[in-house]
Amino acid sequence: MYFITVNLPKFSFLLEEFQASSHTIVDWNNFLREVLVDWAFQKTCKEKLGGVGKTVEVDEAKLGKRKYNRGRIIEGQWIFGAIERETKKIFVVAVPDRTHETLLSIIVERIEKGTKIISDCWPSYSRLEEYGFIHETVNHSKNFIDPQSGAHTQNIERNWRELRSKIPKYGRKKDHYAGYLAEYMFLRTYPAIRDRVHEMFQAIGQLYNPSGQTGSVGGETEIVGEDIGRRNEEEEEYEEVEIYLDEWCECYE
């Protein structure tokens, strides 16, 4: 679990480190990404970006590959994201398209009304003011920064460059993009390795509640007794793992 929180060549590193089969490594990576997808969903649902007096940049991009490494992108995944300038908080989600209906529904759901939203001139953003937002645009065909208002989307575009560098170049699968995006959000939200490890445990506990049954009669009492004994053993193992993780954290900080 720890190794998904550090910037290492994960697959080859884990194969060598744990002497595990490739199937096992893939399964564990997928399991942890599933945890992170749930974490990202919970976080973005509970914490909207923006508010009165705050500025949020929004943009859409396509992650994909070009035929023979050149020319127009022919396949890939559309993504949509936003960054709050004042706090640098972000969200990034995979979307089926970049139509008005798709993008507006996400903006209304995840950005507070009264926010100043800055976007490019893509038509899907044209009605934001009707929904209670202040809207400024920059025409990228003419300027990177609007000469009158100073509006730009350079912060969110910088995130696209970082994100593309984190996603595997080979073996990409469209149904894995949600996991890639969630992993990127998680690592960006918690820059310190110790925080990442702690928050990963928290996220696992959120998705897979570790609390056991609390029965009081018959066989249920026996099960609870067994659970308590097992939990004591697990606590001892956890202490050993914690020491191991502390040593790794010191190495990589």
Automatic annotation (TrEMBL):
Recorded source organism is Hermetia illucens (Black soldier fly)
Question: What's the protein called, per UniProt?
Answer: ISXO2-like transposase domain-containing protein
InterPro entries in the record, alphabetically? IS1016-like_transposase, Tnp_ISXO2-like
Mention any Pfam family matching this sequence. DDE_Tnp_IS1595
Query: What sequence ranges are listed for the domain ISXO2-like transposase?
Result: 48-189
**Which SMART domains does the entry mention?**
DDE_Tnp_IS1595
